[in-house]
């Protein structure tokens, strides 16, 4: 594995300038970025900033939401933005059930079809589409892809250079089949990103902002890091945490704790 | 399937007297009960009340929490209470990770061992231990059994007359493997209870009280009812919903809506 990367969402209130200087000042060599923040800052300007500071963009979040009316154009723009930022990984959050539908099978098939439609654009841009299974508690409203097995199944018709999967501890830790899935994802060359966040309770209302920094919760981070390392994964390990209390703290302190959590996991 | 049963938790603020008279007055022939309420009312008194009114007790919730210090004695008392109430089904909520442990495999093994230790008591009492897989969002703090596959695996060493599983739509709806699991559970004679509750968002803080009455959310209830019916399941269909807004309404109105949701599902 290449080392630590700070996902921008972890230090949400840092500007992109602060993120870059904060990372460079402590020797962090990679960041994961989010489309909204990059777009607000200016994509070309962001690309220059990270390039000039010698940073790698380990991933861009996020494409997906394939049930939105404009999904195709929006995802093509996301692919282009990823390429412009110099990252080879676009994380996909696939979206929940459309409208009042209760047809999960159909929603999941549509995700597969949509990804297939984007494969030529992804290959042309040199950007890999990284299907992220989200925790089943997000199934109805955010992502119908709930397990690593489902993500691998959706990826399977397409070349591994075009479609991969995201291993995020927060979403997958409860699944006793995840260890086999990680080994299989590695053997297929499909691990596009590896992200750390911990499971803490009680979950907050809406459950989106309930993640803990690695080491603060219930997840066996070392087992995940070992399993991913054993596949030969050679990417960065992103720490990606959403939590109001974490966001309220000084970015440098959060970054230090994120690095410590990463180091304990990969030790 | 035998018909509708009202789980007591759905009309939480009804006393046991109100629950029984409310059910009898609209022709409902079964109720699912909870230990705490039954104990407060008096187990013998509760048993007489339901028997005298011709009601079946479709299940008793709950045994389990196998990582508590007194789990063995507590579960033996639960089995005895179920037998005294005349129900053949004790629902097990197995408990989360013990203390600060992150060892899910070990916690799950302990659940299996604990259930095995209780099998002789269950057989002697004529009460089936019904392992309930809970939604993965409860994995750390309430139940390490997160999927129907896991529940069936834990049940597999023991006779189906002693150990079964609970199919609860709320906990299992997101799982694409659940249909195979239901068929397998049916073929093994292990479906001990079938419960309906719907998935609605946003989830409330703590996520426990976020369930909707059947028909109000994202779950394909008809598909679940068909899948369970096709196994030859001959038990009751319980509606079991926890939600403050539902609890705040008059019990008779909630019961009517629960029955309507059940009828739409099994139609």
Give an overview in words.
The structure is a homodimer of 267-residue chains. The first copy, chain A, has 267 residues and is of the alpha/beta class. Chain A contains eleven helices and ten strands. In chain A, helix 6 links the parallel strand 5 (128-131) and strand 6. In chain A, helix 4 (71-85) runs parallel beside helix 5 and helix 8 (178-187) packs parallel to helix 9. The model of chain A has no long low-confidence stretch (mean pLDDT 98). Chain A binds chain B through residues 97, 102-105, 108, 135-137, 139-141, 146-147, 150, 173-176, 199, 201-207, 217-220, and chain B through 97, 102-105, 108, 135-137, 139-141, 146-147, 150, 173-176, 199, 201-207, 217-220.
Task: Itemize the secondary structure elements and their pairings.
The structure is a homodimer of 267-residue chains.
Chain A: E1 3-7, H1 16-25, E2 30-34, H2 35-41, H3 43-52, E3 56-64, H4 71-85, E4 89-93, H5 104-125, E5 128-131, H6 148-155, E6 163-168, H7 169-172, H8 178-187, E7 191-196, E8 198-199, E9 211-212, H9 221-230, E10 236-239, H10 244-247, H11 251-266
Parallel strand pairs in A: 1-2, 1-10, 2-3, 3-4, 4-5, 5-6, 6-7, 7-10
Antiparallel strand pairs in A: 8-9
Helix pairs in contact in A: 4-5, 8-9
Strand order of the largest sheet of chain A: 1-2-3-4-5-6-7-10
Count of alpha/pi helices of chain A = 11
Largest sheet of chain A: 8 strands, parallel, barrel
Name the CATH superfamily assignment of chain A: Divalent-metal-dependent TIM barrel enzymes
Q: Kindly provide the name of the CATH class of chain A.
A: Alpha Beta
CATH architecture of chain A: Alpha-Beta Barrel
Reported by name, the CATH topology of chain A is: TIM Barrel
* Quaternary organisation: homodimer
Poorly predicted regions of chain A are: none
The amount of helix of chain A comes to: 40-55%
CA radius of gyration of chain A: 17 Å
Quickly count the domains of chain A.
1
- Proportion of β residues of chain A? 15-25%
Distance between the termini of chain A: 12 Å
Structural shape of chain A: globular
Element string of chain A (H = helix, E = strand):
EHEHHEHEHEHEHHEEEHEHH
Keywords (chains A, B): Isomerase
Domain Xylose isomerase-like TIM barrel (chains A, B): 27-255
Protein name (chains A, B): Sugar phosphate isomerase/epimerase
Pfam families (chains A, B): AP_endonuc_2
């Amino acid at each position: 594995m290449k080392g630590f990367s700070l996902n921008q969402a972890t230090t949400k209130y840092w500007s992109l300038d602060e993120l870059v200087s904060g990372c460079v000042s402590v020797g962090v060599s990679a960041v994961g970025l989010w489309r909204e923040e990059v777009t607000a800052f200016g994509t070309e300007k962001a690309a220059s900033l990270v390039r000039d500071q010698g940073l790698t963009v380990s991933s861009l979040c996020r494409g997906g939401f394939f049930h939105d009316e404009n999904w195709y154009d929006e995802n093509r723009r996301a692919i282009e933005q990823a390429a412009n930022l110099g990252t080879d990984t676009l994380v996909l959050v696939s979206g929940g059930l459309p409208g009042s539908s209760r047809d999960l099978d159909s929603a999941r098939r549509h995700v597969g079809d949509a990804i297939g439609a984007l494969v030529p654009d992804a290959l042309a841009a040199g950007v890999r589409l990284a299907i992220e299974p989200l925790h089943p508690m997000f199934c109805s409203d955010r992502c119908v892809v709930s397990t690593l097995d489902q993500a691998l199944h959706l990826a399977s018709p397409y070349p591994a250079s075009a479609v991969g999967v995201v291993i995020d501890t927060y979403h997958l830790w409860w699944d006793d089949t995840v260890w086999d899935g990680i080994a299989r994802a590695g053997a297929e060359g499909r691990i596009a990103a590896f992200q750390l966040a911990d499971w803490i309770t009680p979950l907050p209302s809406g459950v989106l902002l309930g993640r803990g920094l690695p080491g603060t919760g219930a997840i066996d981070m070392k087992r995940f890091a070992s399993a991913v390392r054993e596949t030969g994964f050679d990417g960065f390990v992103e720490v990606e945490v959403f939590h109001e209390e974490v966001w309220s703290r000084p970015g440098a302190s959060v970054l230090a704790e994120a690095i410590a959590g990463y180091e304990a996991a990969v030790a």
